[in-house]
Each structure stands twice: as structure tokens, then as C-alpha cells.
Amino acid sequence: xxRFFKLFRKKKSFTxxxxxxTIVVVGIVVLPISVILAKxxxxxxxxxxxxxALNLARFKMEEVLNTPYANIAIGTTSSSYPGYVYxxxxxxxxxxxxxxxxxxLKLVIVSVVKPDSxxxxxxxxxxxxxxxxxxx
Length: 136
Description:
Distance between the termini: 114 Å
Mean pLDDT: 84
CATH superfamily: GSPII I/J protein-like
Number of helices: 2
CATH class: Alpha Beta
Strand order of the largest sheet: 1-2-3-4
Low-confidence stretches: none
Structural class: alpha+beta
Number of strands: 4
CATH topology: Pantoate--beta-alanine Ligase, Chain: A,domain 2
Order of helices and strands: HHEEEE
Shape: rod-shaped
Number of domains: 1
Strand content: 25-35%
Radius of gyration: 32 Å
Helix content: 40-55%
Largest sheet: 4 strands, antiparallel
């Protein structure tokens, strides 16, 4: 009977070296995973910035395209939209294909910029034509 109790009283604990080695191995495995996770979270925020900027640029471009040709003002305008932290810069320049004609061609450039940095996130360009004939 005494032998039976001695079997269960045997020490089953970890030594300090085993514990330290376990912590080192877990640390070596977890460190790269945490770096990958941090990069993923950062890329999600950058992707969200670009998606929001693209949607604002498309919205502004649709506003310009739905404006009559004569009402599209030449120059640069800046606007911001409530709920967004971006500045939308619209630049319109006009070129006349032929002198003394009623033809018109306007270049519209819509850029979206974050106010805290000077880098442009998205730029959209289009031409709007009035009475333009192709050929002769």
C-alpha cells in the first residue's frame, strides 16, 4: 500500500530551466506573428484611406460631369465634405481646339489630399468637350 502512495507523490513539476526555455521558444514563435499582425492592421488603415479618397474623387467628378459646360468654372477650388478628413482639390483648365470657333475642351483634374500631409492619395482626370468635331 505504501508503494501505491509513493507513486502518486512523485514530483511532477517543471524546473526553472524548462520554464525559461518554454518562454524563449514561445517568444520566438510569437514575435514574427505579432509583426505580421501589426503590418496587416496598418495595411487595412491605408486601404481604407485610399478607398475613401477614391469614393470622394468619384463623387466630385460626377458633380462636375453633371454640371453644364458653361457653368464649369476655370481655376482651382478646394472643398471638404462633412465626416471626411480629406481635402478635394478640383482644377479646371480650358483649351480651344480651333481659334474663333464655338468648340471647347476643358481638362478636369480632381485630387484628394489628407490635410496633415501634402501627398496626393488619388487623382482623377477627364476632358469635357463642347461642340468638338473630329476630323477636318
